[in-house]
Amino acid sequence: MRVNVLGITIDSYSMQEAVAEIRKAIEDQLSLRVVTANPEMIYESRKNPRLRELINSADLVTPDGIGVVWAAARLGTPVQERVTGIDLVQSLFPVADQQRWRIFFLGGKPGVALQAARQVALKYPGIVWGESHGYFNEEEEVDLLEKIITFQPDILLVGLGAPRQEYWNAEHPELARVSIGVGGSFDALAGIVDRAPQRIQELKLEWLYRLWKEPWRWKRQTVLPRFVIKVLWQKIIT
């Protein structure tokens, strides 16, 4: 079931169910495009019809963050839990390890995807991986596409930042069985950025921890109160 949050339809899958859907797509050799939709992306889509159509046409749209979970509940169509990009990929790695899936890490500054892939491989040696940074121009993109196609990934993790990664995945559906936009997850996987302690994650305050650690993000966080107001207005008029 999908729920409507400001015109974006969100799947109500739990993390376990989302992983199962991705596993099924790989085993059945089906294409699956995954969007992890956070409040910023949802809010942006209100004034960007192309982005809204792109998200809604994805095969799996997960609630990325407690803000989306709150919005769905407020609108009377609750989802089971948040399914963020970083949590989703970390839930996929044990399965990928067992099944020896091929995962391509694309994104981040030069060296970050490589470091992330190596850190993941230390814990999950069954994963076959490839990587490339996300700082490529149009000419370099030709070689990059050839590299990915040659690698034949089961999963393509794209960390180009939203919404660029969503556009890129939609434009290149032939590259992998499953493509997932993962934002800045590679920084966390590489150990460059620390995630909030588990207790803070459980309290749903990871966004506040990130703001404290990265105060430059405050401009992005100003979207949140506007997102809340729009959700409350949707509640009133529906």
UniProtKB/TrEMBL annotation:
It comes from the Bacteria. The keyword Transferase applies. Pathway: Cell wall biogenesis; teichoic acid biosynthesis. Its EC number is 2.4.1.187. Pfam families: Glyco_tran_WecG (PF03808). It catalyses: UDP-N-acetyl-alpha-D-mannosamine + N-acetyl-alpha-D-glucosaminyl-di-trans,octa-cis-undecaprenyl diphosphate = N-acetyl-beta-D-mannosaminyl-(1->4)-N-acetyl-alpha-D-glucosaminyl di-trans,octa-cis-undecaprenyl diphosphate + UDP + H(+). GO terms for biological process: cell wall organization; teichoic acid biosynthetic process. CDD domains: Glyco_transf_WecG_TagA. One of its GO terms (molecular function) is N-acetylglucosaminyldiphosphoundecaprenol N-acetyl-beta-D-mannosaminyltransferase activity. Keywords: Cell wall biogenesis/degradation, Glycosyltransferase, Teichoic acid biosynthesis, Transferase. Belongs to the glycosyltransferase 26 family. TagA/TarA subfamily. HAMAP family: TagA_TarA. Catalyzes the conversion of GlcNAc-PP-undecaprenol into ManNAc-GlcNAc-PP-undecaprenol, the first committed lipid intermediate in the de novo synthesis of teichoic acid. This is N-acetylglucosaminyldiphosphoundecaprenol N-acetyl-beta-D-mannosaminyltransferase. It comes from Desulfosporosinus meridiei (strain ATCC BAA-275 / DSM 13257 / KCTC 12902 / NCIMB 13706 / S10). The lineage of its organism: Bacteria, Bacillati, Bacillota, Clostridia, Eubacteriales.
